[in-house]
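Re: Re: ligand-bound prediction request (bumping)

Still looking for help on this. To restate: I need the protein modeled with adenosine-5'-diphosphate bound, output as structure tokens. Inputs repeated here so nobody has to scroll up.
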Amino acid sequence: MSRQPLVGGPVLVINSGSSSLKYQLVVPVDGEVLASGLIERIGEVSGRATHTSSGRSHTIESAVVDHGAALRVLHDQFAEHGPDLDQAGVVAVGHRVVHGGPDFSTPVIIDDAVESEIDALSPLAPLHNPAAVAGIRAARARFGVPHVAVFDTAFFTGLPSEAKTYAIPAELAVRHKIRRYGFHGTSHAYVAGRAAEVLERPAVGLNLVIFHLGNGASVSAVTDGRAIETSMGLTPLQGLVMGTRSGDIDPSIYPFLRDAAAMSIADTDTMLNHRSGVKGLSGVNDFRLLEDRMTEDPAARLAFDVYIHRLRHYLGAYAFLLGRLDAVVFTAGVGENSPMVRAAALAELTEFGIRLDPDRNAPRSKDPRIISTDDSGVTVLVVPTNEELSIARQAQQLVG
Ligand code: ADP
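Reply:
Sorry for the wait, this slipped through. Here it is.
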């Protein structure tokens, strides 16, 4: 990237996981994706990198020892299959960072101090922040343009005190930064903005409940473009039933399973994060499979019902917290693609002014759309999320 960057040029968005690195080269103004890719099995004996540009995908298999090596692979893939990163006029690299702690409420330009601060937050996100820092270090060493961190927690740093505070000894909470942080914030913020556009209403005065239903799942209550509640907490384990996570559960499960099943804290933690949710109940976490099995398999039916029950529980609670509900919005893999989940979540709520239109709910589409009837008091929308575009826009705004 030796050429002088052009403002308005593309942003390279990087999402570093512990063993994978996803990237997109995005034009912030119109959302055009010039290239995207995934580097998998970082640190394992055999790695794999897939790069897509100009409608064609290219995959190579080779060991990728660490995030520095992954960035080298990324650079080589662009050099070989295009577009040429040195000629693309990249204005910034935007990094998705899961945990911004209590203080990072907006995107920031990354310098050494910010990098250290993100690293220092690792106890709050031991799986995610160290991976983000590894990706940031490697990318900063390679690309001499501004690097911007965009935090998953940022949208929720302004939660009201009564929403973000756990009822535990105050001194302990302060000492260890224990509070409800919330996650998926980039998606909730983006979808809130898009919903206002679709409804042709200003964010001010608009009360939304937003369901982000992917493998991970969370719901937020938004008013005036600000979140006042969200279902995830200190970690992304709290709240809704998810693909493999339990969501809300009595914390006494830890001592109970220690005594009843000789399970350590680590055993129970792994079970709640990776072997629970709809997978724990039914054996599958892909909603396409779950829905196929529901008519014959009582376990799949129960998993679906428990999942839906939790959605309705939160919808009711958040509608009351907001005091008035203008719209319910569905996003992410399940929210965007499952008419069955949306219909079940909002069934028999006409007394509360919510009327889904089955003909609008059924079709599949990549476009934002209204799926309630014209006379529904509460509008129901499907709004596809786009976290990469949101990160690209926030990065561009900061450096522009
Ligand atoms: P994440 O980003 O959290 O990994 P996604 O937002 O990509 O997850 O969502 C993944 C989920 O979306 C999976 O459970 C998958 O089954 C579900 N999904 C994708 N397509 C469909 C579909 N057509 N019908 C129902 N669920 C779907």
